[in-house]
Amino acid sequence: MLDFVYKLNEVLPIWPQTNKWSMVQISKVTNTSMPHVIQFFSEGLARELDLESAITLDEANRALDLLKKRLKSEIEEREKILAERRASAILAYERIMVRVSSLQAQHKWHSAFKTLSYFIGQYEEELNCDGLVAVYSEAIRSGIKSNTNMQELSLCLQKAIAIAMSQKTKEGIEDAIDLIDAYGEFFLNESTGKGPLLLGNILAALEEPAAKFELWDKFKSLVNQFYAIG
């Protein structure tokens, strides 16, 4: 249950306000078995759910809050351990960014992407949000330059946006908007159709928080820019 709480907390920021998600979708995005997803949400919402059930963002947040309270001591213990790992991750981050910068300067984009991907695999849970957003941003940049497949690039963008939005601050939302400003045109013009779909979903998720944190003009200008290009 503890792993599920952490994973759900990561994905909620990219959940469009108006959409309901099925148990199947939640199982997939949190990498949690279906029976456990149904069990955790049934407990968190105090009602019986099944395979066909779908829930709103508000319901997911309600369930998450209850599960966090129930697991308070376990979360506090994990956070202590993570604090030690985060200190090590910061040092590793500083080293890896110097190395990646050198690879990029030599136009070794594929090596830069692979180096960043390996680093993410090692330190994703320990590095702070700002560091992770920066790493994912450079991974997207290097991946585009090295013609990395759309599935990997899409995952990087989704992760970066989710992490930025998970901070639930003006700075975090602005970081998410800046990511779309930097890479959105590439995804909009991607030929398989997956890129434009992903971009549309992210913009839908950003709309409400952009208005909430008084970033509407910046967000709207970006949307108009993209769809004028498209």
Question: What do these coordinates show?
Answer:
The protein is mainly alpha-helical and 230 residues long. Among the domains are: 2-70; 149-230. It is 78% helix and 2% strand. The protein has eleven helices and two strands, in the order H-E-H-H-E-H-H-H-H-H-H-H-H. It has helices at residues 2-11, 23-30, 34-45, 57-70, 72-105, 109-123, 129-145, 150-166, 170-188, 194-212, 216-229; strands at 21-22, 54-55. The chain has a two-stranded antiparallel sheet. The mean pLDDT is 92.
Topology as a string of helices (H) and strands (E): HEHHEHHHHHHHH
**Count of separate DSSP helical elements:** 11
Distance between the termini: 43 Å
| Structural class designation | mainly alpha
Give a count of the beta strands, DSSP E runs of length 2 or more.
2
Strand order of the largest sheet: 1-2
Helix content: over 70%
Task: Report the biggest beta sheet as strand number plus sense, adding barrel if it closes.
Answer: 2 strands, antiparallel
Task: Report the principal-axis shape.
Answer: globular
Residue stretches low in confidence (pLDDT < 50, at least 5 long) are none
For this structure, the quaternary state is single chain
Specify Rg, calculated over alpha carbons: 18 Å
The fraction of residues assigned to DSSP E strands is under 5%
Mean pLDDT rating: 92
